[in-house]
Amino acid sequence: MRDMLNSRLSRVQVSSLVFVHDVIMAALSFVVALWLRLGDGVFLLKPDALVLNTALFTLCAAAVFRFMGLYRGLWRYASLNDLMAITKAVSLAMLVYLPVGFVFTRLDQLPRSLVVIQGLVLMVMIGAPRFGYRLFKDGRLDLRQRSGPRVPTLLIGAGDGAELFVRAMDQGTAYYRVVGLIESERSRVGYKMHGVEVLGHIDDDLGALIARLTEEGERPQRLVITNDDLSGERISALLELSESLGISLSRLPKLTEFKNGVVDRLEVRPIAIEDLLNRPQTVLDRMGMRELIAGRTVLVTGAGGSIGSELVRQISDFGPRRLILLDNSEYHLYLIDMELGTRHKELDRLPMLADVRDRGKVHAVLSAERPDLVFHAAALKHVPMVELHPTEGVLTNVSGTRNLADACRAVGVRAMVMISTDKAVNPTNAMGATKRVAESYCQALDVIEAARPGGTRFVTVRFGNVLGSTGSVVPLFQKQLAAGGPITVTHPDVERYFMTIREAVELVLQASVLRSREVAGEAAGGRLFVLDMGDPVRIQDLAKQMIRLAGLRPGEDIKIEFTGMRPGEKLFEELFHKAEELVPTAVKGIQLASPRVVDHAVLARALDVLIEAARSGDVDDTLGRLRALVPEYGSNVVPMRPPGVLPDAERRKSSS
Asked: What is the pTM of this model?
């Protein structure tokens, strides 16, 4: 089978094998056609004449097949173009054979109708294996080829996505005309798919190839990426090339984005910033996610936020018995509740307007609803804002997490999943320090509960920035672009880890599945899951890419200005502390970090004092106690305070 051979053999070897197949079919077809015409009378023909005529026709067919380039089409994508090529080749072979056979044998003993029968038989014997393989792979044949308005297009990729696009462009409403394919497998270069040739390899000089197409009058006006596996680095290079050539770059939706296999709604989309992330794709255990969620009551805090709302969407798709949406923002809670009502009308859901800082309300909600699973996404996450208001960060991120965790333990929740951040590692800001304290509390509880049969498991999942989330640089850059610039970046070398909101939530659910399958005592409690964020991205490069995606030139159309690091910010984020030993998991995109666990009783007493300091509004005392709980929290960081608010010592001096 041709696709299987392509991965093992060179293009020449594959072509030779298929050529031998067609030559054998040509010889057999001559004998079969005679038998169909003469029946048993074929045995009355002179053996010498039969052998000679069969050999002559076979030689003529072989020469014509090679001349016609019949071996540049991929069997995997056999189409009407291939059928037309076979018909032309067989017809020409018959026309060549007639004079040759007449010269050598004068065609004695051969019936005149043999030409028609022979042509039909040979077309079937050559075409059937090709279309049979296509039918075997796809389960159906679609050989349509229609015309329509055309924009010359060069496809990057010659796999299933490209075949889907080329086939869709054969419909009457087609807008694009594919002038060539670029492939990542050199063995496919020179082949054809639905009559469109694979012109080169992706590592070749695409600029020279496009220049050649221009000379031939086939200059592409658009590059379309059809290969889902291209790295962010490769897409960035293509973006720069397309910008230099004045050609727009787009992509097809990933094949996994098509719903119910609908092809007639295929659309070419602009390259999005998430396409440029150099991130590995993770194979997810969706069956395990469904088993974890289906038929259970699930509660999500921060349900109206960027992470929380995506959690709600994905959880709702796995058929929970009841879904409770908890948020302290009336507007955001309203939006996600309305969306969920449209997405899954039959789902039993409860929007709950509440604040995780309200310990009594949190306990009342969990006692009344008795959820099986709790996902804790509610948090203050904006670094500069929490630097301005560290006491508020403690009350939400520390006290709110403690309230929820204690309630989960009290009512026997099966598992609580806390969303953490890479800023909790060696924090230089109050936000990161509060999230590290929240991690510590959940880890301490998990150690206790892991030793208790049927105890509540506390799953902590740590990851970096998510594109498009609240406080992300991407929405800020988009607003600055819309205003005509400039785009502001704090430092030329600042880097951050990024992933998409959807992928982050998928991996959170995957981590929850991994934890749910652990047997009590089988693995140490307190370990946290860390998502593989790929390579860090330089924010300056991200800004340049966004400018290019808008069709503009960095530094010329839109300026980039460096504003200086803000209090509490780091140049580089980290995903692991040096004391956290990495442990592999069964899922490639998820790692485990061994715990740095504090005794629960000791930690609980320290949190009492910390939370009381935060409630009293004592910023200095709050920060001091945060540093005591998180020794790595940078002591040289000077917190920003709202205008007019003095440190406690200065406030006491002024009052005296």
From this structure: 0.62
